[in-house]
Design a protein that fits this description.
With about 350 residues, this protein is α/β, with parallel strands linked by helices. It is built from twelve helices and twelve strands. A hairpin with a 7-residue loop joins β9 and β10. It is globular and about 70 Å long. The two termini are about 40 Å apart. Tyrosine-protein phosphatase targeted to sites of actin polymerization in response of varied extracellular stimuli. Has tyrosine phosphatase activity towards various tyrosyl phosphorylated substrates.
């Protein structure tokens, strides 16, 4: 209807369907979903790519038009930017409360109330669940599979570990180097001794360097609990993304990190991956995009970077903030496929 007449009438369409079968489009959420589908399709178009075409189409998208000086990545990102404007209307009432303002590193990056994890192990002075600047993120196949949060500040260190404990975040991914914490965050784990953070004790038992990232094993316990009540947490630090670079230096290292983090997290049921960076957006979003992209390729046999970024920006509109990161998502997809050539055939 949109392409044929340049107009759409969702109400009349649903009305006609109901004349044929009364209970079509039963829920208000389904009716709203129709508008979402229309909007995304009309603004962004068809952006899905078959696995076999990824390399060829990525190369074609890198070619700039002589008239507009834009390439395919620019055009797709521009469409995503346009639709993101609508995602900024979601309420962030808790983050704006006076008592929570000091817990936000940046006042313009707040968690939406609908997908903000609440803290049960860190209560307010009134006994209500505690606040942390964090959001749930859907993977390609699972709701709320990941949690993204800002690097903890001194006043939120205990809240950070309460988040890990309450939501069984057995894998914690830090999207920057440990030495950069001096500039934009507080160190939240001990190097070689047990340290208390509020009601929690953290003990580092092992640290091993890998190709482009470092892996540490932490033991998390809660005070006043029985001795066997603990959580083993694997901390992954991406070492190949200096502060002065817009994208990581080694896409293969990030793909490897994603695989290892997912493998460890899947060893415990109902557990999640926690992703953190300075603002809880700019760098963390790239890890989440990588998770979705790898799953698209493996589960669906296709790649849709635009859809992956749109789904992320519904939860936090500051994810994937520039076209450099957006085009790097295609690089990650190719790197993921290359890993199958190295270690086995892709099926």
């Amino acid at each position: 209807m949109a392409h044929a007449t340049k107009k759409v009438n969702v109400y009349n369409c649903v009305l006609e369907l109901r004349k044929k079968r009364v209970k079509m489009v039963q829920e208000k959420e389904q009716y709203i979903f129709l508008y979402d589908v229309l909007l995304e399709t009309l603004l962004c178009g068809s952006t899905s790519i078959a696995v076999s075409d990824i390399q060829k189409l990525s190369h074609q998208m890198s070619v700039r038009s002589p008239t507009t000086n834009m390439n395919g990545f620019d055009r797709e990102f521009q469409a995503v930017e346009k639709i993101t404007e609508l995602y900024q209307i979601f309420p962030c009432k808790e983050g704006k409360k006076l008592e929570n303002q000091t817990k936000n590193r940046f006042p313009n990056i707040l968690p939406g109330d609908h997908w903000r994890p609440i803290l049960l192990s860190s209560l307010t002075r009134y006994g209500a669940p505690g606040y942390i600047n964090a959001v749930f993120i859907n993977s390609n196949c699972q709701d709320d599979a990941l949690i993204v949060t800002q690097l903890p500040m001194k006043q939120t260190l205990a809240d950070f570990w309460a988040l890990v404990w309450d939501y069984k975040c057995t894998a914690v991914v830090m999207m920057q180097r440990a030495q950069d914490l001096r500039e934009n965050g507080a160190r939240f784990w001990p190097e070689n001794r047990e340290t208390c953070f509020g009601a929690f004790k953290v003990n580092t038992t092992e640290t091993n360097p890998c190709n482009g990232y470092t892996v540490s094993t932490l033991n998390l316990t809660k005070n006043n609990r029985i001795s066997d009540s603990s959580l083993v947490v694997r901390l992954f630090q991406l070492d190949s993304w200096p502060l002065n670079r817009p994208i990581p230096e080694n896409p293969a290292a990030l793909i490897s990190l994603i695989g290892e983090a997912e493998k460890f997290q899947q060893q415990m049921s109902d557990s999640r991956i926690l992703v953190t960076c300075c603002d809880g957006a700019e760098r963390s979003g790239l890890f989440c995009a990588g998770v979705i992209i790898c799953d698209q390729i493996c589960s669906d046999g296709c790649l849709d970077v635009s859809q992956a970024v749109r789904s992320l920006r519904r939860r936090r509109c500051q994810f994937i903030p520039n076209v450099e990161q957006y085009s790097f998502c295609y690089t990650l997809a190719q790197s993921y496929l290359d890993s199958f050539e190295t270690y086995g055939n892709f099926k």
